[in-house]
Fold this sequence. Notes:
Elements: H1 9-19, H2 25-28, H3 37-47, E1 70-77, E2 87-94, E3 99-103, H4 110-117, E4 125-130, E5 133-134, H5 140-144, E6 147-150, H6 161-166, H7 175-185, H8 189-193, H9 216-229, E7 234-238, H10 246-254, H11 256-260, E8 264-268, H12 272-275, E9 280-285, E10 288-293, H13 295-301, H14 304-318
Parallel strand pairs: 3-8, 3-9, 6-7, 7-8
Antiparallel strand pairs: 1-2, 1-4, 4-5, 9-10
Helix pairs in contact: 7-9, 13-14
The protein binds adenosine-5'-diphosphate.
Pfam family, one: ABC_tran
GO molecular function: ATP binding
Domain ABC transporter: 70-311
Amino acid sequence: MPGGGLLPRRVMVAALAGVRLGLSRGLAHLGEVYEHSLFFQNLTAFLGQRPSVVAPSSPRPLLAPGPHTLALENVSFTYPGAQKPVFEDLNLTLRAGETTALVGVNGAGKTTLVKLLTRLYDPQGGRVTLDGVDVREFDPAAYRGQLGVVLQDFTRYQLSARENVALGRIGEADEETRLQGAARQASALELIEGLPEGWNTLLGRQFHVRGQDLSGGQWQRVALARALYRDAPILLRDEPTAALDAETEAELFGRYRDLTRGRTTLLITHRFNTVRMADRIVVLEHGQVIEDGTHAELLRRGGRYAEMYALQAEGYRSAEEQAPQMPEALG
Ligand code: ADP
C-alpha cells in the first residue's frame, strides 16, 4: 500500500462493499481506484460514512522485520446491521513463516477472517495481534504495509502491466528487478513479456480500445504479482473459486515453496492440491475452528477435512482433465 497519507483507504472499500450492490455499476467502479485518497475523501463525504477503523493518536512503531505471528484472540465479530455474529470467541494463530490453509464451506467465515486481518473491520470482542501486540496500536496504513493481499474480488486496473504490478510505487529504486522477480514468482513474467508492448501494454478494454484483455486466471497472476511486489512479510490470499485456471494452478503449485519462503501466509483456496502442501490446515465451520493439523494428520483423523478431501478426489477421478477442486456444494 502506498505509505502514509490518510489512513483508511481500505475503509472505503469496506464502506463500498456494503453499499456496492445497490449502486449503479459506474459508481461501484470507484471501488477499483480506492488507492487514490482523493476518491476516498469524496466517497466518505458522499456516503456520509465515518471510518470504523481509527488510528491511535500516538501509534506504536512497527516491529522488527522478519516472519511475524498473526493471531485472532477470542475474536467476536458481527457485521454492522446484522443479527447473527460471524465469530464468537474465535482463536486462530498464523505462525511465523508458516503457510496456513483455511478451508470450509461457503459462509463459514473465511473471507470475513481476511477482512479482520486486513482491518477492513475491527472485531467487537477480542483482538487481532501481530507478534502479541494488538494491531489497533499501530497506524493502520503502516500495519497494512506488512500485508500482501490478494482478495477474492481482486482488482483489474485498467492501466499498464507495469502500473498494475507496481501500483503507486512506480519509479522506485530497483523497480525493474523487483517487477521481474514478483512477476516470475506469480507465474506472470512470460505472460507480461509476451504482451504486444511488454510491461507498457495497457490492460483491459474498458477504457481503451487498444487495451489487451486478459483471462480471469491471467488477471489473477497479475494481482498476485502486485501482492508480491510489495515484498510484505505476511501474505493473505483469498482465491476466487473459478478464476484460477488449471494451468496457472499447476505453475503456481510448482513455485509454492518459492512463494511462501520466509513469509507468514494465509491461503484460502478450493484447490486441495495446494491445500495439502500447507504446513497446517484449519477447517472453519459456522465461524469456528473444528479441525487443525497437517494434511496427513487430518486424513488420519477421518473428520470433516478427510470427507471434503475424499469428495474432491472422487470428483477428480471422474473428470481427470480438471485440476482437483472443492466440489461446488462444499465450496
Ligand atoms: P466464506 O468466505 O467462508 O464463504 P464469509 O466470510 O463470506 O464466508 O461469510 C460469513 C458469514 O457472514 C455468512 O453468513 C455471510 O452471509 C455473512 N456476511 C458476509 N459478508 C457480509 C456483509 N457484508 N454483511 C453481513 N453479513 C455478511
